[in-house]
Amino acid sequence: MKKLIIFFLLTALILPIFFVRADELEDITKELETLKKDLSSKEANYQELTTRLNQIKNQVSQLEIEIVEKENQVKKGEQALAYQKNLLNERSKSYYKNIQQSSLTLLSMLVADNLSDSFRKFSYQRSLVNEDKNTIIKVVLYIKNLEEIKASLTTEKNQLTYVKQEVDTQSKVLSSQISQTRSKIAQLSTRQQQLISERLAALGISRSAASLGRCDSDLTNGRDPGFSPRFAFFTYGVPNRVGMNQFGAYGRAKAGQNEEEILRAYYDNFELKKDYDKSININVNGYGSYNIEDYVKRIYEVPESWGADGMASLKAQAIASRSYALAYTNNGSGSICATEQCQVFHSDPKGGAWEQAVNDTAGWVMVQGGSPIKAWYSSTHGGYILKSSEIGWSDTSWTKHANDFDGSVGSFSDLSSKAYDRESPWFYCDWGSRSEYNKTAWLKTEELADMVNVVLLARADSSTQEHLYQVDKPHPYGGEVWNQDKVKQELKNRNISYFNRIDSGSVGADFSYGKTSSINFSGDSGSVSFDGAEFKNFFNLRAPANIQIVGPLYNIEKR
């Protein structure tokens, strides 16, 4: 009986072996075949295909886990197999012995004087026979089931190997096609890049949180441009996203982070030295010389009101301002300007909670190798932190690329609810305006179609780029600007379909990096997709008035 109990326990544990679903492998194979066909399409949407391929990879990874589990279960089954074969032998002997005994008991019962007692003995003997029989059947079925599972495991492993090879092949194909497509992306000339920089600077976007106004967002100001449907492009954050995010620091302080935690969220590879020389003087252009601590008390970079519920953000700013000034002036041997180009400085101390933050952190400086780091910062990063090299500056070891939100983000709505700087009035804004359309940045459907046509033409023939500037101003270098009709004609001359109107637009965003990776349009000429940076560059050359997309992560809105 003890052996029988052990057997039932083993079968209960081993028989429900973890199965890899064959239909799931078949589904993945079908998905791969569909993906291969879509990859061969001339209108392939690489962002969508990349997402699908990543989903397949995740499915394959899960199946690998299941197969490993199944192999482990088979090993356990094989370990128990020797015992069960011995049990089968014992039960087979017992079965034949008991069935013979049962026959004798039946004869004894027929001739016995005490029929009732003989019947009980017969019934008992028959129960032993049935028990042996059932055990034999269970053991045989167990062995058969184990053999079938081992066979299916071999088949599934072979099929999964094929699927993994196909996934690897399609990954390489997709990567190659994306690379080829990117190599075809029209590149801007040096003077075009300079023009974009000048247009961006002309927007007058404040770097400082203290002097930040409200974003005149066309989603909230309620002004009607007088036409519909209409489109606008909204950027997350302001151009400089290097170092500390001032509104992000405020959000982190309200979330309970202290000044050191805040600084380490925005800077890398530094030591926070808390006894730096406080006797150094800083020369301020137009104002004279100030002791470093007195200088920092006159910095106007963040609202003093943040001290009420975000004191740690003021302390972090005081440390960053002190570190920046010391690095900028090489410990006081040079001078520093008093504007946003350096740090906003006024002759009178700011006072209040700001002065308290300066006093509480007196002598605290971020250093690397003993020297202060140039601790850049700006008002609003839009949920992401960039290295200095990512915005065209020299690479620095104390800047970093990092996320600036709580948890994970997979959509724009996630970002808007989780970014630490989401309270900034410039967190999500469309930039620029046109007085003739009620001071809004909305574009007409035919104007957006022109933007799309411009990118199509620049891709097809890079020599046309010198004619693709904004049509409401003279050519910046004295050439000819092609209007909407001329761009259409040039596309037609090259047998390329052009758009007269755009009906809808959407973006594909890389939320792990913080950029718009692709933008997609549908209109009267079908659908088309562009690299996000490519479209932004040509949009910023062509857009009317001072309308601009000012950062790597942007969205399109339609009303």
TrEMBL record:
It comes from the Bacteria. Pfam families: SpoIID. InterPro entries: SpoIID/LytB_N. Keywords: Coiled coil. Gene3D superfamilies: 6.10.250.3150. Residues 290-367 form the Sporulation stage II protein D amidase enhancer LytB N-terminal domain. Residues 22-80 form a coiled coil. This is Sporulation stage II protein D amidase enhancer LytB N-terminal domain-containing protein.
